[in-house]
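RECORD TYPE: inverse folding
INPUT: structure tokens
STRUCTURE:
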């Protein structure tokens, strides 16, 4: 393929050069198990703790509050199942939203089958969770509130600080799935009253297979993975030293470049959204226009099947998606788009494009010109579109 424009950075990102260079020695020369006591292992142990310190500093947390995991899904599972098990004597009620990632929603479903009760909050047409609705749902037996920091499909950034204040005031633990947000927008766990936070390295140019869970000091949480005494005896398993070193380097780079990257991505994002909405009829932006991740564009095109559009974009060297990579292959429309009130037939025509700092305005001009051609072609084959046009001409 002569041309490749990668616009699926919410699914995964390329491995950053900084992360790759830091990882290489721990893939070959410094291969020791950092839990070992001999001198050869100490370099790996120090590298693990250095990475922990970098991540803690990025969140305004303490080093000992960062626990390494296998990724965002494990971190979400651990937060929800761990709190549920530890606090079941206090209560069995959990609050979340209808637009969470499936790592949270499916875990909630599992807990319901174990006798827990879950309140799934509605969102508004932009995907925003109301802090007032959160507060109104709290009961004496509520043990956890889990609301994502930013939505992985439509990019909406939630009012996390206000929700955290509500949780803190009612002395209910607050978890946020920050997989899409961490490394892209500022997060301060103390200021935002966050007790637990999940993140994953491959969403900000770190390696796959490594993530972390922030656990505030004093939070009771049962272990998810049992075995050895790693991670202060809370998460068993030999440390993935190359992965941990890689995520540490990726965090360092992301924090240093965050403001510049956000400004660049936001400018290109808004330029692309404006062009599409102006030049493609019957297109709709999904998600909040301003309270939005810097790199997220999610648009529905009426009278179009999103999968057909993706195939035709791929033929032009453009990588995008119709929603979360975790539901790829599903024929059902996005649960997020249905939750913000879109009917099935419109939700099926969604296109998600997530930029990186390497995406240029020229890239997006090529993409938008391609979208216009593809939409026109697909609509020319749609009986529904023909009927719609005919009825509007009468």
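DESIGNED SEQUENCE:
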């Amino acid at each position: 393929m002569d041309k490749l424009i990668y616009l699926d950075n919410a699914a995964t990102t390329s491995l950053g050069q900084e992360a790759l260079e830091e990882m290489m020695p721990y893939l070959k020369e410094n291969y020791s198990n950092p839990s070992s006591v001999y001198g050869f292992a100490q370099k790996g142990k120090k590298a693990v703790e250095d990475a922990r310190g970098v991540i803690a500093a990025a969140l305004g947390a303490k080093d000992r509050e960062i626990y390494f995991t296998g990724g965002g899904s494990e971190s979400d599972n651990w937060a929800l199942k761990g709190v549920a098990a530890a606090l079941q004597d206090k209560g069995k009620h959990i609050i979340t939203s209808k637009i969470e990632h499936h790592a949270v929603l499916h875990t909630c479903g599992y807990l319901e089958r174990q006798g827990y009760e879950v309140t799934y909050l509605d969102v508004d047409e932009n995907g925003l969770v109301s802090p007032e609705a959160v507060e109104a749902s709290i009961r004496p037996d509520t043990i956890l509130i889990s609301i994502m920091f930013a939505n992985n499909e439509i990019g909406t950034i939630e009012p996390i600080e206000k929700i955290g204040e509500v949780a803190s005031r009612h002395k209910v633990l607050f978890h946020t799935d920050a997989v899409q947000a961490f490394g892209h927008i500022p997060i301060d766990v103390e200021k935002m009253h966050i007790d637990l936070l999940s993140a994953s390295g491959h969403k900000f140019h770190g390696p796959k297979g490594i993530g972390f869970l922030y656990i505030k000091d004093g939070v009771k949480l049962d272990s998810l993975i049992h075995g050895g005494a790693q991670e202060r005896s809370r998460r068993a398993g030999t440390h993935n030293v190359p992965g941990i070193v890689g995520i540490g380097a990726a965090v360092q780079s992301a924090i240093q470049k965050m403001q510049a990257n956000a400004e660049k991505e936001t400018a290109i994002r808004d330029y692309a959204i404006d062009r599409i909405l102006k030049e493609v009829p019957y297109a709709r932006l999904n998600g909040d226009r301003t309270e939005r991740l810097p790199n997220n564009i999610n648009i529905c095109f009426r009278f179009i099947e999103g999968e057909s559009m993706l195939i035709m974009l791929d033929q032009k060297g453009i990588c995008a998606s119709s929603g979360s990579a975790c539901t790829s292959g599903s024929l059902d429309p996005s649960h997020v788009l249905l939750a913000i009130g879109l009917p099935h037939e419109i939700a099926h025509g969604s296109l998600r494009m997530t930029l990186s700092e390497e995406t240029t305005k020229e890239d997006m001009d090529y993409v938008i010109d391609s979208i216009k051609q593809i939409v026109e072609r697909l609509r020319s084959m749609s009986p529904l579109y023909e009927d719609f046009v005919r009825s509007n001409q009468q």
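NOTES: Residues 28 and 242 are 10 Å apart (CA to CA).
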